[in-house]
């Protein structure tokens, strides 16, 4: 007997090709951040129905479970990927607008009472001198431009002459997810795990900056740990 129940849609993710292994790291992380971390702004008006559920998920592990298992979210992702005419845009930035955060952390983070802080524990995996690793994450990467990235559920744009998204033309601002910058990658000795800093700005009082660790999972680089530096 045939069932009348519709089968749920599972979004398979975005397939893309690059011969540059480091670019794949940045590209994989950009897709994960936009689709799962940046307040689902790439969904546009479709994100409204998720807000009530997301507001109750304060634990990062709960959010990750939601992203993987929520059937409606998978359907929305597939809808967005199928109709490219309405894709929102994330803009690639080449400037760290919150360098003062690093200066503030650097002024006190290496004092004895902070020896067991999450940041120092994270960075020790990459160098015994965690302060050196921290300073290496101070400046954004400049090697890859917006045209180097690929995605299926959003577009990637360049800020060009602007430094911040609210300096763009009104129609560009209307379709903007926000802007994101990445630091250079710091690898462990095996080069199977790395750490970088990213910052995301979506308005004058909207954004965040995090240190994220990542590793390869089933052929894609995925975020494994994170430490918040600032949020607005």
Order of helices and strands: HHHHEHHHEHEEEEE
Shape: globular
Structural Rg: 19 Å
Question: Number of folding domains?
Answer: 1
Please tally the helical runs, counting DSSP H or I stretches of 4 or more residues: 8
Counting helices, strands and paired strands, the structural category is: alpha/beta
Helix content: 25-40%
Largest sheet: 7 strands, mixed
Give the end-to-end Cα distance, rounded to a whole number of Å: 54 Å
Question: Got a strand count?
Answer: 7
| Mean pLDDT over all positions | 87
Report the β-strand fraction as a percent range: 15-25%
Q: Would you identify the regions where 5 or more consecutive residues have pLDDT less than 50?
A: 1-6
Q: What can you tell me about this protein's structure?
A:
The protein is an alpha/beta fold and about 230 residues long. It has helices at about 20-35, 50-55, 60-70, 70-80, 100-110, 120-125, 130-135, 170-175; strands at about 90, 155-160, 175-180, 185, 195-205, 205-215, 220-230. About 30% of the residues lie in helices and about 20% in strands.
